[in-house]
Amino acid sequence: MAAQTVGGNATVAAPVQVAMAGGVGILALMMSVMMLSGSGVLDSTFSSTSKAVVVDLIGAQHSAEGSSGGTLAQAQSVLLGRMSMVAIAVLGNLPMLLGTAKRIFLFAPH
Question: 72 is in which domain, residue-wise?
Answer without folding.
Answer: 43-96
